Amino acid sequence: MNDSALWHTEFGDGTPIVLIHGYTIDHRLLLPLEPAFTGRSGWRRLYPDLPGHGNSPRLSGPTSAATMADAVIDWIRATVGDRPFAVLGQSFGGQIARAVTARFGEQVLGSALLVPVVRWGAERTLPDSTVVERDDALLARLAHEEDLQLFRAVMARHTEESWALFEEHILPGWRVHDRRAAAELDADFLLPQWPESPGVVHHGRHLLLTTRQDALVGWRDQLALLDHYPRMTAVVLDGAGHNPQVECAPAVREVIGGWLDTLPRPN
After folding, report:
1. Which of 120, 143, 240, 251 is deepest in the core (most CB within 10 A)?
2. Mean per-residue pLDDT over the chain, rounded
3. Pairing, β 232-237 against β 133-134
4. Are 172 and 215 in contact (CB under 8 A)?
5. Per-residue pLDDT band at 216 (split at 50, 70, 90)
6. CB under 8 Å to 1, separation ≥6 — which residues?
């Protein structure tokens, strides 16, 4: 495969915005954001599937955070060209979005980082409590142990409503990802160094959105990013876990809409 030829779907016309999903799922995780573009014309929304995820085959060589970032950067060059664009990334996709901003510089109008990966493993600062609501009868009824473990890890509300959202937006991508490529990535999950070089700032309009109950990446470590983006707004939501665009979609769409309205629009 040509590693820059990622599968993607797109909606709308105008200024490109690249929306990058996270680890072991696919672009469908971010589709709940689409209503944020209602009434905001002029955005060409590009949703790629990362290599080894969704409809994109794995990389032809080793899978690591660095090779994944390079594949996305090559794909953006081929798809967007030299046009100004915005980027949004969730979780692992947030780490890739940071690399995209560093590589493309002022061509990037701004970024939105949803629960982005900043640190990993034992270096993470995680909250003590990550469950805000639990339906024990529901949990006892769910028979597939792997699905149940994922549900409990990424959602803060263990309820019938949350399970329905999980089944619609998260499970489809989880069930089709390349397990061997995912294992390789898990072993080399962080970029070799922070994309934000010391002393280099990006003056676009940026958004950081985290949640108090995120059991995978937390929220405290991400605040260090504010030093590198002087025009960054930080929002910490309560009552949601690692997929706030699914679990509390209206609140997230409102925040994303506000960020979109701050971005400069090229002629």
Report:
1. 240
2. 95
3. unpaired
4. no
5. very high
6. 57, 59, 60
The Cα-based distances of 17 to 1, 26, 128, 246 in angstroms read 25, 17, 35, 19
13 or 3: whose pLDDT is higher? 13
- Predicted confidence (pLDDT) per residue in 60-100, tens digit: 999 999 999 999 999 999 999 999 999 999 999 999 999 99
Tell me how far apart the alpha carbons of residues 118 and 155 are, in angstroms, rounded to a whole number: 20
Query: What pLDDT shows up at residue 200?
Result: 83
What's the confidence (pLDDT) of residue 4? 57
Compute the average pLDDT of residues 124-153: 92
State the Cα–Cα distance between residues 267 and 264, nearest whole angstrom. Answer: 10
For residue 87, what are its two tokens?
């980027």
Residue whose pair of structure tokens reads 């002393």 in the numeric block: 199
Instruction: Tell me the one-letter amino acid at 189.
Output: F
How many residues are recorded in the chain?
Answer: 267
pLDDT digits (tens, 9 = 90+) for 221-245: 999 999 999 999 999 999 999 999 9
Dist CA 192 CA 79 (whole Å): 26
What is the CB-side half-sphere exposure of residue 67 using CA atoms within 13 A?
A: 18
Contact 29, 55 (CB under 8 A): no
Look at residues 1, 23, 11, 22 and name the one whose alpha carbon lies nearest to residue 47. 11
Look at residue 254 and tell me whether its pLDDT is greater than 80: yes
Helical residues (DSSP H) of the chain, grouped into ranges: 65-80, 92-104, 136-141, 145-154, 160-169, 171-174, 179-186, 244-247, 249-262
Q: Hey, what amino acid is at 210?
A: T
Burial class (CB in 10 A: 0-12, 13-18, 19+), 128: exposed
